[in-house]
Amino acid sequence: MLPVGHDAVASQNKVFGITYAIDGWAVHQRKSLLGQANDGKWPATWEEYNQIASRMNSPPREHAWGMAIGHESDHFNNIMTIVWSYGGAIANAKGEPAFNSPDTLRAIDLIKHQYVDLKIIPRRGWAATVTSYNNELYQTKAAATVINPTSIYGWLQVNDRKLLADTHLYAPPSGPRGSFAEAGVWAWAVMKRSRDVDAARDAIWYFMGPDRYAKVLDAVPGRWVPAFRGMLDTDFWRTGEFSQLARIAINARTRAYPVGAASWRDHVENTFVLSDMLHRVCVEGIDTAEAVGWAQIRCEAAYRRLGI
Asked: Phi/psi of residue 256, each to 5°?
């Protein structure tokens, strides 16, 4: 099983479920603009992306980087995707708040550069309150690049075949520590006090039978990545239009990385601490170290109140 699929259903060296799908957050990129900006070559790093972004940028109608920055849940992913690539994280291996680090500071300075200097992130993002914000940016061609689950791609398959043909999926650019994307993990589990534990287990094994499981995946091409590494060894996943999703799944992280689900981290997300921290840096002009330190204090307060 791919690491993210295993880690999402494991705790204290025990496995409590079986993953059946990995739903990676992919870069959706308009190919025509990338062709004009960089001869169609996806940049390997965030620094390279910044160098070509101005050639995809025509504000206020269209911005290069449709980053989620407002009071809606996608902001957490979009910010942490860059933080991870620089080596930062929301917590340490013990599950304690560890957002304030030199790596995080460098990542936030990169975003500040994108917003303040390059002006490639739309200002209206601060006012966003629904997670469809960056979907709509891309669907209306108001952004050249967004990071989102492939629900956007699925919407294009049904509603806008022309824009679909102009869309390519990529893993996020790398920072100094690599390229990491979030993945939602879909899994089966059975509560031990259920009345029909044996029947439920039999149903799961029936669903996960290799031939049947493969048919389920074939019915939603590109939406779900197989949970097992061996199933990625096909032309579809190695060289097809969804090959980057396989790359994302192999290196994917859950939103709570490097620990499992934690109520204090959920509280940080749901009270928009990272969005407000970024606003302090990009709009209010507060020093990055001070703003990140403020976010760390908020994380620690949530940790003390809610624990793991």
From this structure: -90, 5
Structural domain span for residue 52: 1-259
What is the per-residue pLDDT for 12?
A: 77
Q: What is the pLDDT confidence band of residue 192, given thresholds at 50, 70 and 90?
A: confident
Q: Closest Cα partner for 283 from 294, 272, 295, 275?
A: 275
Using only the alpha carbons of the chain, give its radius of gyration. Answer: 20
pLDDT at 308 (0 to 100): 59
Record the tokens describing residue 170, joined without a space: 């990529």
- How far is CA 5 from its chain centroid? 15
Q: Is 295 part of a structural domain of the chain?
A: no
CA 64, distance to chain mean position in Å, is 18
pTM for the full model? 0.93
Number of structural domains (the chain) is: 1
**Residue 290 included in any domain:** no
Q: Give the domain CATH number at 120.
A: 3.40.190.10
Return the exposure string of 157-175: e unless at least 16 CB atoms fall within 10 Å of the residue's CB, then b: eeeeeebeebbbbbbbbbb
Of 86, 135, 142, 153, nearest to 288 by C-alpha is 86
pLDDT of 4 higher than 70? yes
